[in-house]
Write a structure and sequence with these properties.
This protein has 239 residues and is an all-alpha fold. The chain has 2 domains: 122 residues, no CATH class; 114 residues, no CATH class. The protein contains 11 helices and no strands. It is elongated and about 65 Å long. The termini are far apart. The mean pLDDT is 88.
Length: 239
């Protein structure tokens, strides 16, 4: 897959095939390039089933995903919304492999065209995207790390209006609330007051909504801290 000519050919072929089939009532089945990638996907799925470790599966997916990039790029560039099991499966695999930006590129297309997930996925597309990315973010935040707030905001933009269980949506709002709260220090030192207030207001909005959606989401202490900091940062401005 390192051959640029081959990658270009596969990308163009996928774009042409995807452009020839329009609408969610139609499917990519019967297209040669789709059938080839579907067969490869099934072979790779069997390889994944032989790996028991979740980390091992994620690592194998990282190795396999680059081989599908030309197909994905072609469909996203030329596609008109036909059902595509390869594309929807790769969206999930990208999330599993930690490629959230790449997964959101696919998710935007999938949700825009109302593509259906394969039968083995019990949740809707919006639920999968919002919940999977939020859970990774919350796990990182709980461990004392951070998660890219721009990725969370893009997740909300793409999947936030989709119908999903309140608990799933609460996770995304909680992760966003925590991400904005992390941008503000408890110490009132050299940090810009305007920026701090902006981040805190955003945090309060998302945390409040998370609690509203699921009172047991775990964001109440975060909200208390944010409200305390809001008073602290707002006081000098008022004076």
């Amino acid at each position: 897959m390192t051959n640029p000519c081959r990658r270009h050919f596969q990308r163009v072929t996928a774009a042409v095939a995807a452009a020839a089939v329009a609408g969610p009532a139609m499917t990519m089945e019967g297209s040669t390039v789709y059938e080839l990638h579907l067969a490869k996907l099934q072979q790779d799925y069997l390889r994944l089933k032989q790996v028991q470790s979740t980390e091992g599966k994620a690592e194998l997916k990282k190795q396999l995903l680059p081989e599908y990039v030309p197909y994905v790029e072609g469909v996203l560039a030329g596609g008109k919304g036909a059902q595509d099991q390869v594309l929807t499966t790769l969206m999930v695999w990208r999330m599993d492999a930690g490629d959230f930006a790449g997964a959101l590129d696919i998710a935007e297309y999938v949700i825009q065209h109302a593509l259906l997930m394969p039968d083995r996925f019990e949740r809707t597309t919006g639920t999968i995207v919002a919940e999977e990315i939020a859970e990774v973010a919350l796990k990182a935040q709980k461990a004392g790390g951070t998660f890219d707030v721009d990725l969370l905001l893009r997740t909300e933009q793409i999947a936030g209006e989709e119908d999903m269980p309140d608990q799933a949506k609460a996770k995304l709002h909680l992760a966003l609330g925590k991400a904005f709260a992390e941008m503000v220090s408890d110490d009132d030192t050299s940090e810009s007051k305007v920026a701090a207030l902006c981040h805190l207001e955003s945090s309060k909005k998302y945390l409040s909504r998370a609690i509203e959606l699921n009172t047991n989401c775990g964001g109440k202490k975060d909200l208390e801290r944010v409200e305390r900091l809001l008073k602290k940062y707002a006081a000098p401005a008022a004076n």
